[in-house]
Amino acid sequence: MDNMLKSLQDTTTLHNGVKMPWFGLGVFKVKEGSEVIDAVKSAIKHGYKSIDTAAIYQNEEGVGQAIKESGVPREDLFITSKVWNSDHGYDAALQAFETSLNKLGLHYLDLYLIHWPGQNKTYKETWRALEKLYKDGRVRAIGVSNFHIHHLQDLISEAEIKPMVNQVEYHPHLAQKELHAFCQREGIQLEAWSPLKQGQLLSEPTINEIAEKYQKSPAQVILRWDLQNKVVTIPKSIKEQRIIENANIFNFELSPEDMERMDGLNKDERVGSNPDVMNVGF
């Protein structure tokens, strides 16, 4: 366990051997233009290597601009994007990938995800497109987002390549224990979106108590909990100070008792859509 606790550059090794940073910056709802450019440049300047965007965020151009202006070699970064619901299907997904790549101004992606499973199982066709992109070397790893166990089982039953990552809503109020265990058994890396439950968890008394004990912020304690649970995490922020603070979680370790107390906060409560009913854009 200790080997993942040293720094912002630490990585988990995906089942195909690709190394993915444990920690990154998410840019959901970060405005295109100077807002996203400044956030991404701040993150990279302060040692972040991983940036997570998506077609639907409509800020891929700004992310690409920031990467260019950062002066950091492309191969030192880990860039994720996602195919949106309206682009499910083999040809549509291939086209969506080209569009994302062009907007980002990159030659390849490190990780490309199916954003939501949807209702009609077209994700299998979409997955075939991702497998092709992977085999063609256009993307270093492929995965899914918001997939429940039954979606994963259904996909794996017919897929040639198993997803390397499943990015889901994950935080102390939604600990997804069964999904997490399933992914670990299958060698699929779990990744957390909305790790702070859009800020709602920052006033949780137990978390505040634990934060005080370690002289850390509630956000830092939650993000540390993610890492100690072996979950990759990508908190979103546009403030430079917060971007620095969020990443300052490699100089302390939560005790097993405190990890357990935080596990005990689970109430299967979502801030986002349930993937079984989410039907936008299908």
TrEMBL record:
CDD domains: AKR_AKR5G1-3 (cd19157)
Pfam families in UniProt: Aldo_ket_red (PF00248)
Active site: Y57 (proton donor)
Gene Ontology molecular function terms on file: oxidoreductase activity, acting on the CH-OH group of donors, NAD or NADP as acceptor
Keyword Protein transport appears in the UniProt entry: no
Keywords for this protein: NADP, Oxidoreductase
Binding site for substrate: H115
InterPro entries: AKR, AKR5G, Aldo/ket_reductase_CS, NAD(P)_OxRdtase_dom_sf, NADP_OxRdtase_dom
All copies of domain NADP-dependent oxidoreductase, residue ranges: 33-266
Marked site: Lowers pKa of active site Tyr: K82
Keyword Oxidoreductase set for record: yes
Family note: Belongs to the aldo/keto reductase family.
UniProt protein name: Oxidoreductase, aldo/keto reductase family protein
Species for this entry: Schinkia azotoformans LMG 9581
Source species taxonomy: Bacteria, Bacillati, Bacillota, Bacilli, Bacillales
